[in-house]
Amino acid sequence: MNTERKSRLSINGVATVDGGRYQEVKIAGQGTINEDLDTIQLTVNGHMEGLGDITTESMTVNGRLVTKRDLSAKKAQVNGLVKAWGDLQVPQLRIHGEVAGKKNLTSESIHIYGSLKLDGDCNTDSFTGKAQFQIDGLLNADQIDISLYGSSAAKEIGGEKIIIKKGNKWNKFLPWLQSDLKVECIEGDYIELENTQAKIVRGKQIIIGKDCTIDRIEYQDSYTAHTDSKVGEAIKV
Amino acid sequence: MDQELISKKDLLQDADISYGQLYRWKRKQLIPEEWFIRKSTFTGQETFFPKEKILERIEKIKQHKDDLSLDNLAQLFTKKIDEEPQFKNISLSHLRSKEMISQATQDLCQLELTNVDTLSYPQAFTLFVIEEILSSGSCSLEEAKLVLTLLRDQEENFIHKPYVLLVSRKLGVATAILLHQHDEVHFDSASKVILNLSLDELQERFKQPLLTHGGIS
Lengths: 237, 217
Known about the structure:
The structure holds two protein chains of two kinds.
Chain A: E1 6-11, E2 14-17, E3 20-27, E4 30-33, E5 37-44, E6 47-50, E7 54-61, E8 64-67, E9 71-78, E10 81-84, E11 88-89, E12 92-95, E13 98-101, E14 105-106, E15 109-118, E16 122-148, E17 152-166, E18 181-193, E19 196-208, E20 213-225, E21 230-236
Parallel strand pairs in A: 1-3, 2-4, 3-5, 4-6, 5-7, 6-8, 7-9, 8-10, 9-11, 9-12, 10-13, 11-14, 12-15, 13-15, 14-16, 15-16, 16-17, 17-18, 18-19, 19-20, 20-21
Chain B: E1 5-7, H1 8-15, H2 19-27, E2 37-41, E3 44-50, H3 51-64, H4 70-77, E4 90-91, H5 92-97, H6 103-109, E5 118-119, H7 121-136, H8 141-153, H9 155-158, E6 163-170, E7 173-180, E8 192-198, H10 199-214
Antiparallel strand pairs in B: 1-3, 2-3, 4-5, 6-7, 6-8
Helix pairs in contact in B: 4-10, 6-7, 7-8
């Protein structure tokens, strides 16, 4: 195997290349990478399509990146759109646009000012920001602190500290924007919810804020609910 | 196989852990995905675990969590040995200097690779098993050789499966058996089990120094 890195790959215009190992890859027009790509720095300002695995230390996407396989980036800033058919491994992820994945996302820190859509699970230490998200599997994070902008959903949410609030910055301009969260089950040590519909919420300390509909609550230490919320039953276990 | 299950709620109470810890350990793959068993109950979906396995695992995590990082712990429990760089090319002289392997064991195993210092994980672990057997004093050299042949034959299997190693003796003749952990086995009354070793447990003991001091060549 050739382990030398070539210094630089730059696509300005339209081009299709094989892939390989580089120091730096910059795509300003439209680039298709046919095989695995391994680069220290990846910048996409136009449109890039990857047909092999993509591995990079640091990635900035201002345009659109679509990959048919796995994507691994130690650090990524997504200002446009990233779509991945395979697994996403991004320890440090900042989303200012949209990330969509067909499989799982593994991270340490995810900060969102935009949207995240996953067909699989999302595993991370922290999950914060102002976001709209749709996770078909489990959202598993130590710290979750999200202001909802738009309809969000997850099958399950689990972690230590889970705070879901309604984002209200756009209320004046976009009053029709519905910001809520639909989830089957939430489990955590400290849970604070607004605008959430859940079948079951289990935790040590649970605070139910405005506009929630919860079928069943199981709490260990404390539980309070806003009068605007509907709670089927709350049980101390 | 019927195994006793424990609900998540009871587990948190029995093991005295929090949701945060459980989800963190799941995320770090300290608790395998297949132990999370979903069942419908009258209150909706609930998660259950194989009781014995999960309590044992949590006990171990608690025991080690001060001296190993969570990622190291995951390596300790992993069965995917091939994917972990720490477990590739283990240096024999390093094992010797850490006194994990004695001269007697090395002689007995008469490595075909007398001049080679780097061992694959199964090779190194086989040595460690032999060392354990010899130092326990329960087996003779001949019986240890028997075990060695068995392990070498099963090299591909025994590191991935939760095996128990049994050596029984009847009328002075020894037999070595590799058995799946949860299987039952019965011997006739004339046979005497002289060795009963959980390879799973032994692997964890073997991996630990590799992870803490780095036994990599």
